[in-house]
Hints:
Layout: H1 13-31, H2 44-47, H3 52-69, E1 89-92, H4 93-110, H5 112-118, E2 130-133
Parallel strand pairs: 1-2
Helix pairs in contact: 1-3, 4-5
Amino acid sequence: MRLWSLHPRYFDRQALTACWREALLAQSVLANPGRGYRNHPQLERFMAQSDPIGAIGIYLSAIAEEADARGYRFNTGKISARPELDALIPVTSGQLAYEWLHLLTKLGTRSPQVARRWADEVAPEAHPLFSVTQGPIASWERVRA
């Protein structure tokens, strides 16, 4: 499961649709904690919120907005809750940088045109749910060499 901290504008079609599916899975797990993946590290920052279902709803809404801007039609009726955002979830600059390199690597393999489009981006924007703070890669991230 990968719930990117990056703004969905950077995603190719595959990343956008995968992120949508995985965030829907996360919503299901958060709503029914006894189901599989409940201990998945990617869910920690959502479970730490006062309203985890609302937080994942806001996350999904931004993915759906990007999809809509590209002419895709994601079924937004699957989003359980879309509350007003009362506070952004912090994400560290180290986490964002790690995810950026990870995404660029994936894009370079499967969507070279998209990778070239973003190659000069030095400080990618975070997903609208997150606020960037200085710091290392998140403790929940499974770092790949």
